[in-house]
From TrEMBL:
GO terms for molecular function: ATP binding; ATP hydrolysis activity; ATP-dependent protein folding chaperone; unfolded protein binding. PANTHER family: HEAT SHOCK PROTEIN 90 FAMILY MEMBER (PTHR11528). Belongs to the heat shock protein 90 family. Keywords: ATP-binding, Chaperone, Nucleotide-binding. InterPro entries: HATPase_C_sf, Hsp90_fam, Hsp90_N, Ribosomal_Su5_D2-typ_SF. ATP binds at residues 30, 34, 72, 162. It comes from the Bacteria. Pfam families: HATPase_c_3. This is Molecular chaperone HtpG.
Length: 610
C-alpha cells in the first residue's frame, strides 16, 4: 500500500528562514509581490484596471499585538483556489498561467506566503475573486502548525481583491513598527508600477510617487546625469565619477551603471542592486556583468530574467548570459565614445580603472586598437603610455618578470634604454598582441643577457689592466656555468650585472631542485633538463666604472681576489632574486666568514676561551 509523505510545516518554515531568506523582513517583499501579481493578473482580464496596493499598520488601543494589513484590488481567490493555492505548499496559480502570461508575474514557486510565518503564527486572508458572483467573500485562516480553515466572510468586500492580516508575534514586534514597515516597503517596493500607500497613525503616505530615475523625462542631458548621479549616491552612499545608461533586449533589462571613484581589486566582483519586474530582488547580485566590468556598480530592473527560489539572485541561463553580453556592450560603447569624443576623460578613467580597460582590450580587438596607445605601462624610464613609448623607440621591449625588471632597470635607465615591466596583470598578453592587431608594430621580450651588449667596451689598455681579474673570475665561476665579461656602464655604483635568458633562470631552478630532491625525482628532472638545454650561458659582467672593481683589478693576492669575485657573483644573484643553490650558499658562508676573519685581524682578547 502506498503512503503519502507528511510535511512538517514548522520544519519547512525553519528551512526557509535559515537557508533561503536573508532576513524575516522579506515577508514584506513576498506580500507586495503577491499583491502586484494579483493586480497584473486582473489587468490581463480588464486592461483598463489601474491597480493599487495598500499597507496599513493597525495598532491596538488595548495594548494587544499590532497587526499589519496588506490589501490589493487584484484578481482575488475563489473558495476552490484558496484550498488549492494557499493551502498547498509549492502550488502556484502563476505556474498555470505560464504559457500565456508567465512573464507578467514575479512569483512562481508557491512558497512565498510561508515567509509570513517568520513573523506571525497565524495568517488571515480575506478575499473576493473577480470570478465570484455577487459579493461572495471568503476567509482563509492558516496556522504555523500546518492547519487551516476556510469559511464565508461575515464582512463581504465591496470590490474584488485580497486582504492579508498578520498579527505580530512577540519576538517579531520590531517588524510591526511604522518606521520598519515604511523602510521595508520603500526598500522593496519603491519602483512598483502601482501606487503603494502606507497608512499608520491615521496618516497615509504615497511611497512611490515617481517612476525610477532612468525612466523620467529631463530638460537636458546634464540634468539627467545629475539626477542619475544623485540616485547612485542615495543607493550606494558614495559619489560616483560618472554614470552610464544600461539597456539589454535579452531579459528586458534597463538601468544605470555607476563608475566607481576608486580602483577596486582586479579580482573583486561588484555587487549590484537589482529589481525584477520593478520589485527589489537583491542588493548583492554579482552575476550581472562580464568579469572585466568591475569598475562599475549598477542599479537595474529586469522584466524577463528568472529569479532563484530565494529571490536573491538570477538563475544562470541563456537569457542571463545574453543580457550580460548586452550590458557589457553598453559599457564598451561608453568607453568607445569617450575615446572618440572625450579622450581626456578616458585617460582619467584609465588612470583609475586601467585594469578593467586592459582586460576588455585583451578580449576585443577593435577596442584594443582604440585604446592601446593610451594604456599606461611601467618602464625603466618611469610610467608612460604606449604611444609615448613608441615615439621614443619603434621596437617595444619588455620583460615578463619583476625580478628581471629589477635586475635591468637601473643599468638600462642609466643608458636611456626604455624597457617595459610587463609583470603586471594583463600587460605581457597585451604587448604580445600588439603586432597581431597593428601589423607594423614590433615587440620583443628583453632578456638581461642582452644588456651587456649595449654597454661600452674597454680600451685595449684597459683590457690589459683587467686580464688577471678576468682570468681569475673565469676560473672561479666556471664551475657555476657562468661566463665573465668586463664593460663600462652607468650607474657607476653598480659593480656587476648578472644576465641570463629566461631559460637560464629555469635551468638554475632545475639545478637547485635536483640538489634538494631524492634520486627518483632527480632522474625525472634530469629528463626535463635534457629536453630544455639553455640557449645561452648566464653572464656576470663587471663594471669598470665602479671604483671597487677598478681596485679589484689591481689586487695581487689571488685568494683574496677569488673570494671577492665569488662574493660579487653571489651578491648579483641575490639582487636578481635568484635562489642560491647549495654550492652558492657555501660560497656565501665562506665569504662572510673570511670577511669577518680578515676584519678581526690580530685585534683579539687572548682571555678565557683559550
Ligand atoms: N494577494 C493575492 N491575490 C490573489 N492570489 C494570491 C494572493 N496572494 C497569494 N495568492 C495565491 O496564492 C498562491 C501562492 O502564493 P505564494 O506567495 O506562496 O507563491 P507564489 O507567489 O505563487 O510563488 P513564489 O513562491 O515564487 O512567491 C499564488 O500563486 C496565488 O495564486
Amino acid at each position: 500500500m502506498d503512503h503519502r509523505f507528511q510535511v512538517n510545516l514548522r520544519g519547512v518554515i525553519d528551512l526557509l528562514s535559515h537557508h533561503l531568506y536573508s532576513s524575516p523582513g522579506v515577508f514584506v517583499r513576498e506580500l507586495l509581490q503577491n499583491a502586484t501579481d494579483a493586480s497584473r493578473a486582473r489587468r490581463n482580464l480588464e486592461p483598463a484596471h489601474q491597480g493599487e496596493v495598500r499597507v496599513e499598520l493597525i495598532e491596538k488601543q488595548d495594548g494587544g499585538p499590532p497587526t499589519l494589513l496588506f490589501q490589493d484590488d487584484g484578481v482575488g481567490l475563489t473558495e476552490e483556489e484558496l484550498h488549492r493555492f494557499l493551502a498547498t505548499i509549492g502550488e502556484s496559480s502563476k505556474r498555470e498561467a505560464l504559457e500565456a502570461h508567465r512573464g507578467d508575474f514575479i512569483g512562481q514557486f508557491g512558497i512565498g506566503l510561508l515567509s509570513c510565518f517568520m513573523v506571525c503564527d497565524e495568517l488571515l486572508v480575506v478575499t473576493r475573486s473577480v470570478k465570484a458572483e455577487g459579493r461572495e467573500t471568503w476567509e482563509w485562516r492558516g496556522r504555523q502548525d500546518g492547519t487551516y480553515s476556510v469559511r464565508p466572510s461575515e464582512h463581504p468586500l465591496a470590490r474584488p481583491g485580497t486582504q492579508v492580516f498578520l498579527i505580530a508575534r512577540p519576538d517579531a514586534a520590531e517588524y510591526f513598527t511604522h518606521e520598519r514597515v515604511r523602510q521595508l516597503a520603500l526598500h522593496y517596493g519603491s519602483l512598483l508600477p502601482f501606487p503603494l500607500q502606507l497608512t499608520a497613525h491615521g496618516r497615509t503616505e504615497h511611497l512611490n510617487p515617481t517612476p525610477p530615475p532612468w525612466r523620467r523625462a529631463y530638460e537636458s542631458a546634464a540634468e539627467r546625469r545629475q539626477a542619475l548621479l544623485a540616485h547612485g549616491r542615495e543607493v550606494f552612499g558614495m559619489d560616483f565619477v560618472d554614470c552610464v545608461p544600461l539597456r539589454a533586449e535579452a531579459g528586458q533589462v534597463e538601468g544605470v551603471a555607476y563608475v566607481l571613484p576608486f580602483s577596486p581589486h582586479f579580482q573583486s566582483r561588484q555587487t549590484h542592486r537589482v529589481y525584477l519586474k520593478d520589485m527589489l530582488l537583491t542588493e548583492r547580485a554579482e552575476n550581472l556583468l562580464p568579469q572585466w566590468a568591475f569598475f562599475v556598480r549598477c542599479v537595474v530592473n529586469a522584466q524577463g530574467l528568472r529569479p532563484t527560489a530565494s529571490r536573491e539572485a538570477f538563475y544562470e541561463d541563456a537569457t542571463l548570459a545574453s543580457a550580460r553580453d548586452a550590458l557589457g556592450q553598453c559599457l564598451r560603447q561608453y568607453l568607445v565614445d569617450l575615446a572618440t569624443h572625450e579622450p581626456r576623460t578616458l585617460q582619467r578613467l584609465i588612470a583609475l580603472h586601467g585594469l578593467s580597460v586592459k582586460a576588455l582590450a585583451l578580449d576585443d580587438d577593435d577596442f584594443y586598437r582604440l585604446v592601446i596607445h593610451w594604456l599606461p605601462f611601467e618602464t625603466t624610464l618611469g610610467m608612460m603610455t604606449l604611444e609615448h613609448y613608441r615615439q621614443g623607440s619603434p621596437t617595444v621591449r619588455y620583460v615578463t618578470t619583476l625580478d628581471t625588471f629589477r635586475q635591468v632597470s637601473r643599468v638600462a635607465a642609466a643608458q636611456g634604454l626604455c624597457i617595459i615591466n610587463a609583470a603586471y596583470t594583463h600587460d605581457a598578453a597585451l604587448l604580445e598582441k600588439l603586432p597581431r592587431v597593428l601589423p607594423n608594430a614590433r615587440v620583443e621580450v628583453f632578456s638581461a643577457a642582452q644588456l651587456p651588449q649595449g654597454l661600452e667596451e674597454l680600451t685595449a689598455e684597459e683590457h690589459e689592466g683587467v686580464a688577471r681579474l678576468r682570468r681569475i673570475a673565469e676560473e672561479a665561476l666556471e664551475s657555476f656555468g657562468c661566463e665573465v665579461s668586463l664593460k663600462k656602464f652607468l650607474p657607476a655604483e653598480v659593480p656587476t650585472l648578472y644576465g641570463d635568458v629566461e631559460e637560464g633562470a629555469f635551468q638554475r631552478d632545475l639545478e637547485r631542485a635536483r640538489e634538494e630532491s631524492d634520486s627518483l625525482y632527480a632522474s625525472l628532472l634530469e629528463g626535463t633538463q635534457d629536453k630544455a638545454p639553455p640557449q645561452e650561458r648566464p653572464q656576470l659582467c663587471f663594471n669598470l666604472r665602479n671604483p671597487v672593481i677598478r681596485r679589484l683589478a689591481r689586487v695581487r693576492d689571488t685568494a683574496q681576489l677569488r673570494l671577492s669575485v665569488e662574493m660579487l657573483y653571489v651578491q648579483a644573484l641575490l639582487l636578481g632574486h635568484r635562489p642560491l643553490n647549495a654550492r652558492e650558499m657555501a660560497l656565501l658562508n665562506r665569504g662572510l666568514l673570511g670577511l669577518i676573519e680578515s676584519r678581526l685581524g690580530d685585534d683579539e682578547d687572548t682571555g678565557s676561551l683559550h
